[in-house]
Write a structure and sequence with these properties.
The longest helix has 50 residues, at 24-73. A 16-stranded antiparallel beta barrel has the order 1-2-3-4-5-8-9-10-11-12-13-14-15-16-17-18. Strands 6-7 form a two-stranded parallel ribbon. It folds into two domains: 3-126; 132-543, Beta Barrel (Porin). It is built from six helices and 18 strands. 23% of the residues lie in helices and 39% in strands. It is α+β, with helices and mostly antiparallel strands.
């Protein structure tokens, strides 16, 4: 088999299994292009297949003509000798022709069989459809323990979940694409206590697919993406997108989740969101880019069956809107520095009317900023282990902007509070296998730190949001190529202040020292305030 054919077949096989490609629809587009190349190669091989037969006939004919000439020249030789010579020449030519045709036909048939098998494999993956699909299923079992501020404890020795993501995409033109994702996230069996009365916030829109709730399939992502290589005649590649954007598992948090990074930096935002974004690449040489983002986290709209359906109404909260940008001054794929700023308006907290009251009250806005630096590989050519080790450090700040008559995060009415957080971590090659990835992380948050990371994939609560200290270690190993993987993860959170996973006001988000929670008048809530939490999780994940 020749080298070009080997390369073609190897490329086809890589395309059918590679999960690290830039996007799903680009993988399938590449597969379809490879299939066209293989079909062209088949046509060429079939053409070559008929060529040897013609050539063999010409060789045989030429041999007979040469024999006739030789017979004439050797007319004076005995007829028996001349006949023997001619018969021998014809026999040699015939044998050579038969062997050549047989070898050539076998070679071409083998090559055609290999190519047709590769095309069949590509067809099985593309299914002849323009809308491409990919499946991501994960089974997880977790052991969770909580120590409460009053000294009591709570736990679940074996909490099991099924999570299914169905990715879809279609690249209609070189510029225009559609990307979507359906999601299902559910605890095994029916979950006791999870109803609208005693769990009113579980289906909150920001965590609809991150929360292990019911058996419904929901839309996690749905948006179109427009890409251009020039902006207003300038050499500035840019994109525009609108819809339910991929805003969970962002940069840094994606490392331990073993996913490609989504748009926002995970230190500040990790929730499902509806909005639009537009990115401009200012320098391809240095990887300099800026991305503008707008989103809406809650819509003020009257119910359908009223006299004015979906009109603004003062009986409900006003719109929660977010505006910000992500600025990356440098990214050469090894070293990266990136930052993010956003302002969120009309943030909310729960009301205190009744224990099951699901209404909110608007408390104010919030500024937030994040900057991080990472390196994928420590130096160059220092050995496989260091070359494949990632290290990162991130710093974030949040500043509340309360309404005049409201307090935020435990402050007095109208008083602004500033919180800070830092996060460091490393991911390095497995010490047991060639492809596995292990990681260690630590983060710390101050008293008034607030992130919008309710969708973080940590069932005991967002570790990035912790007002205190959080420690994490994980071990990701691949069982069957990059299709079937497993991960063992340990997370420990030591809260110094309450309200880490609450909303933005003084009801659920109030920051009190854990030691002070037991004191009057807050002692009656100490049984609901977590002091320490830990989670041991094992998952098995199939992606193809």
């Amino acid at each position: 088999m020749n080298k070009p054919l080997l390369l073609s077949l190897a490329t086809a096989m890589l395309l059918t299994t590679n999960l690290s490609a830039e996007s799903m629809y680009e993988r399938f587009e590449a597969m379809e292009k490879e299939m066209q190349k293989l079909k062209a190669e088949i046509a060429e091989l079939k053409s070559q297949k008929s060529t040897p037969k013609v050539a063999a006939k010409k060789v045989a004919k030429g041999t007979e003509e040469e024999e006739e000439d030789e017979d004439e020249e050797d007319a004076k030789e005995p007829k028996v000798a001349s006949a023997s010579k001619a018969q021998g020449a014809v026999s040699v030519a015939a044998n050579a022709k038969d062997e050549e045709e047989e070898d050539e036909e076998d070679s071409v048939e083998d090559r055609l069989g290999d190519i047709e098998e590769a095309i069949s494999e590509i067809n099985r993956n593309t299914s002849g459809s323009h809308l491409k699909f990919q499946v991501d299923y994960r089974f997880a079992i977790e052991n969770m323990d909580y120590e409460m501020a009053d000294g009591s404890s709570a736990k679940n020795d074996a909490f099991m979940t099924n999570r299914l993501w169905i990715d879809m995409g279609y690249k209609a033109t070189n510029n225009l694409s559609f990307i979507g994702q359906l999601a299902y996230n559910k605890a095994f069996g029916a979950r006791s206590g999870a109803n609208a009365q005693n769990a009113p916030y579980e289906t909150f829109d920001w965590i609809a697919n991150e929360n292990a709730y019911d058996d419904q399939i929901r839309v996690r992502n749905a948006y179109f993406l427009w890409q251009e290589q020039e902006f207003l005649g300038l050499d500035i590649p840019w994109t525009f997108s609108i819809g339910r954007r991929p805003s969970t598992n962002g940069a840094l948090v994606n490392l331990r989740d073993d996913d490609a990074a989504s748009s926002p930096i995970g230190h500040g935002i990790n929730v499902e969101f509806d909005g639009l974004s537009s990115q401009f690449t200012l320098s391809q040489k240095y990887g300099t880019s800026v991305k503008l983002c707008l989103g809406r986290g809650m819509s003020e709209a009257a119910p359908k069956f009223t006299s004015t359906p979906y009109a603004d109404t003062n009986d409900y909260n006003t719109n929660i809107d977010l505006a910000g940008f992500i600025f990356t001054p440098y990214d050469d794929k090894q070293y990266k520095v990136s930052s993010m700023y956003y302002y969120a308006s009309n943030l909310i907290d729960m009301t205190m009317a009744t224990p099951t009251d699901t209404s909110f009250t608007t408390v104010g806005g919030m500024h937030s900023g994040v900057v991080y630096a990472s390196t994928k590989g420590i130096g160059k050519n220092l050995g496989a282990f260091l070359d494949d080790t990632t290290i990162f450090a991130s710093f974030a700040v949040s500043v509340t902007d309360p309404k005049n008559d409201q307090g935020m995060l435990g402050s007095d009415a109208g008083e602004s509070k500033t919180g800070t957080s830092f996060w460091i971590g490393t991911q390095f090659p497995s010490l047991l296998t060639d492809d596995g990835k292990w990681g260690l992380e630590y983060n710390h948050g101050s008293k008034y730190w607030r992130s919008v990371t309710y969708g973080e994939d940590t069932n005991i609560g967002s570790k990035v949001a912790a007002r205190g200290d959080a420690y994490e270690a994980y071990f990701t190993e691949y069982l069957v190529d990059d299709i079937l993987s497993m991960q063992l993860r340990y997370t420990y959170i030591d809260y110094k202040y309450s309200g880490s996973n609450g909303f933005f006001g003084n009801t659920s988000g109030s920051a009190m020292e854990i030691a002070d929670v037991m004191m009057t008048p807050n002692g009656d809530i100490a049984g609901n305030v977590v002091d320490k939490a830990q989670d041991i999780r094992l998952y098995i994940r199939y992606r193809y």
